[in-house]
Design goal:
The protein has 64 residues and is mostly helical. It has two helices and no strands. It starts with 8 loop residues before the first helix and ends with a helix.
Length: 64
Amino acid sequence: MPRLKPRLGPLGLALTAWDIWRRLPPRQRKQVLNIARKHGPRVAARVLRAAQSARAARAASRRR
């Protein structure tokens, strides 16, 4: 039986990703790596923009 218990936080996310990665066949692992290489920089840029806008919104709400 697969061990898929809810895990919280960054460590839990990493452990869950590792569990999933171990179960993938080699061809699917290669597909995941290719997709990550293609889309990873775009996703990272959007995350940075979202964090900056959230930080700016928090700073603006504190000034009020």
